[in-house]
């Protein structure tokens, strides 16, 4: 029997948490022979902690053979203690009339505290994956607090955007989803993100040959992927939860699978023209479990360069809005 992996999850009683924890406990994230201990962290709010109790009861009731323990807490020093993976899902939602800058600041403060505590108490091999929005900038803020853990341990999720893009290309081409490969997301997890269709293939052919419609690829395709979150809210009356949880399972699963090539938001070292020190989506190859190298070599045409410049500009503006928190 392998040693259990400790997985801390913030916002564990929220919508995404409810769709996520059962997948982790069933083995979908770390594999069918890897035991896990879930360390569930909620805001110190009575209603949330009560809901968390119910979630923990349901986890018990699933009798998952791989689940070796459940911690419930509102104290991050307890929740992140010895954690090998820290999944930062919890965040304050944008309220009516709230400016984006206020959201950045309010959430920024949460991620300062969490970054400091993770750095102080998590396991030596800890990895951090940020989902709570604005995910890229929250990730940058958490990483900026770390003295012990290197910045490349902190990643933010753009996998939902990658999955959405893959699915849209398959639908348009009328092919099975698995025929679509090498579609990667660049930049911010926001409507400015760029799904780089020119490098995608469909049944081994360039996607731009199979879908011979550059107006659709540059227009409705990019727009549909970028605004998919808003379309789900409009239809469901609530933001994406099951698909976001699924994407986080994919994000981590790919990061622990050597050779996997996938999109994550990582600290920029200038690749693809992103400003150094913003966290931007880009393609990576997993090297050893939990580690990766950026794939720096995809050539970008003028359209792609303009899209990357726009999403980079937004990331730089977000960083400027929270510069006093870094
Ligand atoms: P919910 O509002 O259902 O749940 C969030 C939970 O976080 C709540 O239970 C709340 O009590 C908890 N929480 C708040 N502050 C906390 C703190 N300091 N410590 C621990 N827990 C805390 O939101 P949900 O639908 O689950 O979404 C969670 C986050 O994911 C949001 O920020 C959302 O915007 C973001 N998303 C990110 C996506 C991505 O692709 N990166 C896609 C889906 C989603 O929109």
Tell me the series of helices and strands, N- to C-terminal.
Answer: EHEHEHEHEHEHEEEEEHHHHEEEH
Summarize the main sheet: 6 strands, parallel
Tell me the Rg in angstroms: 19 Å
Q: Can you say what the CATH homologous superfamily of the largest domain is? A: Lactate dehydrogenase/glycoside hydrolase, family 4, C-terminal
The total count of strands amounts to: 14
How much is the average pLDDT? 96
CATH topology (fold) name of the largest domain: L-2-Hydroxyisocaproate Dehydrogenase, Chain A, domain 2
Walk me through what this model shows.
Strand 2, helix 2 (46-62) and strand 3 (67-73) form a beta-alpha-beta unit. The protein is α/β, with parallel strands linked by helices and 326 residues long. The strands form four sheets. Strands 3-2-1-4-5-6 form a six-stranded parallel sheet, with helices on both faces. The mean pLDDT is 96. It folds into two domains: 5-156, NAD(P)-binding Rossmann-like Domain (Rossmann fold); 159-325, Lactate dehydrogenase/glycoside hydrolase, family 4, C-terminal (L-2-Hydroxyisocaproate Dehydrogenase, Chain A, domain 2). It has helices at 15-26, 46-62, 76-79, 100-121, 135-144, 159-173, 207-210, 214-226, 228-236, 242-255, 302-321, and strands at residues 5-10, 36-41, 67-73, 85-88, 127-130, 154-156, 180-181, 185-186, 194-195, 201-202, 205-206, 261-267, 279-286, 292-294. The protein is globular, with a radius of gyration of 19 Å. Helix content is 43%, strand content 18%. Bound molecules: ligand NAX.
């Amino acid at each position: 029997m392998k040693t259990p992996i400790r997985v801390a999850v913030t916002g564990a009683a929220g919508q995404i948490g409810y769709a996520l924890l059962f997948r982790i406990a069933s083995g979908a994230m770390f594999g069918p022979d890897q035991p896990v201990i879930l360390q569930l962290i909620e805001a110190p709010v009575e209603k949330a902690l009560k809901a968390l109790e119910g979630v923990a009861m349901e986890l018990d009731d699933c009798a998952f053979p791989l689940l070796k323990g459940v911690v419930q807490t509102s104290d991050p020093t307890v929740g992140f203690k010895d954690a090998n993976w820290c999944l930062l899902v919890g965040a304050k939602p944008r309220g009516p009339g709230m400016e984006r800058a206020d959201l950045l600041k309010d959430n920024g403060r949460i991620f300062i505290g969490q970054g400091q505590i993770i750095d102080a108490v998590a396991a030596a091999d800890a990895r951090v994956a940020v989902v709570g929005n604005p995910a890229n900038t929250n990730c940058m803020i958490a990483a900026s607090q770390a003295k012990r853990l290197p910045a490349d341990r902190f990643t933010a999720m753009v996998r939902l955007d990658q999955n959405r893009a893959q699915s849209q290309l398959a639908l348009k081409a009328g092919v099975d989803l698995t025929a679509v490969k090498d579609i990667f997301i660049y930049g911010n997890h926001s409507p400015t993100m760029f799904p780089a269709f020119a490098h995608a293939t469909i049944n081994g052919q360039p996607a731009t040959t199979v879908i011979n419609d550059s107006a659709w690829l540059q227009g409705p395709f990019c727009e549909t992927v970028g605004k998919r979150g808003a379309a789900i809210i409009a239809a469901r009356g609530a933001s994406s939860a099951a698909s976001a949880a699924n994407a986080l399972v994919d994000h981590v699963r790919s990061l622990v699978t050597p050779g996997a090539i996938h999109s994550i938001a990582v600290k920029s070292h200038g690749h693809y023209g992103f400003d150094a020190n913003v966290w931007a989506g880009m393609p990576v190859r997993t090297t050893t479990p939990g580690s990766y190298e950026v794939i720096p070599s995809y050539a970008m045409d003028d359209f792609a360069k303009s899209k990357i410049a726009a999403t980079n500009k937004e990331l730089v503006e977000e960083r400027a809005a929270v510069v006093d928190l870094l």
